[in-house]
Amino acid sequence: GAVMINGKAVAEMMTNTIAREVATLRAQGITPGLAVVLVGDDPASTIYVRSKVRKTEAVGMHSVCHRLPTDTTQQALLALIHALNDDRAIHGILVQLPLPPHIQRDAVLDAIDPAKDVDGFHILNVGKLAVGRTDGMIPCTPMGCMLLLRRFLPSLSGRHAVVIGCSNIVGRPMARLLLNEGCTVVITHLQTRDVAAEARQADILIVAAGHAGLVRGDWVKPGAVVIDVGINRIDGTNGPTIVGDVAFDEVADHARAITPVPGGVGPMTIACLLQNTLRAASMTTSKDVTL
Ligand code: NAD
């Protein structure tokens, strides 16, 4: 049987460390601040935003949440972002995705000050990651996956990594991080001819497709480390439950280690958001010192 990678426990340890570092910064007169912007009332987004706000407050950071109506204009949203860019109490800005269809996502993401872009979706941060520079902001979910992987595989160099899914939020940045750590990386997606055959080659299998139970036991090479990013709501007989993209019991028979859903990657995503916010706040202080 596979070792269960307890993301919840790792995230708690990270969060405790972050809370101590926040206290140190606050003693120096700087309270790290995170602004979360939600446009519309998508139920999943509302839950994620509430959870982010709660965790931000729990580590002693300054937390601001802007909830805007669905019919907010792009111009009004951009004006808010510019105000947050200029707000010295705010070190991190997160615009919850997806945005309503009348708003151009890229225009909004690229309006965020790259130094405050704690989601790492600004094109400058995307570019830095793509060329292997380490001074940008790294997207929270892939960063969380990386931190979990490192606990089981001290060196990723030369490993064969397969990523299922190539979204800008998870799959692509994940593949770039793995490449930057020396993995041989295969990215698979809906047009891939035989995803299972690719997956079977993997020492490291990252699954971010949004398809419940996609990865079966026979897709996994014995001894592989499997990271399940998927969050799928299933309406079962006992009410709704959350499952990943991996058929957990089958895959646990083959894998060396596997993340559960819930309690795996999800908690790590928020911990990494706090980590990025702390980093953004620390960078402003060092800048202030040298000025
Ligand atoms: P997305 O829909 O934007 O992208 C899905 C990707 O998977 C696409 O590239 C698509 O081509 C590929 N794909 C879909 N079905 C496939 C299949 N059958 N075979 C191969 N490739 C397939 O989704 P996303 O935003 O990247 O999120 C993916 C999943 O991860 C979702 O379940 C989402 O809820 C979850 N997620 C979790 C966290 C977290 O914190 N744990 C964060 C973000 C997303």
TrEMBL record:
Alphabetical UniProt keywords: Amino-acid biosynthesis, Histidine biosynthesis, Hydrolase, Methionine biosynthesis, Multifunctional enzyme, NADP, One-carbon metabolism, Oxidoreductase, Purine biosynthesis
Pathway involvement of the protein, from the record: One-carbon metabolism; tetrahydrofolate interconversion
Swiss-Prot/TrEMBL catalytic activity: (6R)-5,10-methenyltetrahydrofolate + H2O = (6R)-10-formyltetrahydrofolate + H(+); (6R)-5,10-methylene-5,6,7,8-tetrahydrofolate + NADP(+) = (6R)-5,10-methenyltetrahydrofolate + NADPH
CDD domains per record: NAD_bind_m-THF_DH_Cyclohyd
One BP term from GO: purine nucleotide biosynthetic process
Pfam families the UniProt entry points to: THF_DHG_CYH, THF_DHG_CYH_C
Signal sequence annotation: none
EC number, UniProt record: 1.5.1.5, 3.5.4.9
Residues given in the record as NADP(+) binding sites: 165-167, 231
NCBIfam families: PRK10792.1, PRK14188.1
Known role: Catalyzes the oxidation of 5,10-methylenetetrahydrofolate to 5,10-methenyltetrahydrofolate and then the hydrolysis of 5,10-methenyltetrahydrofolate to 10-formyltetrahydrofolate.
Subunit structure, as described in the record: Homodimer.
Protein name: Bifunctional protein FolD
Species assigned in the record: Acetobacter estunensis
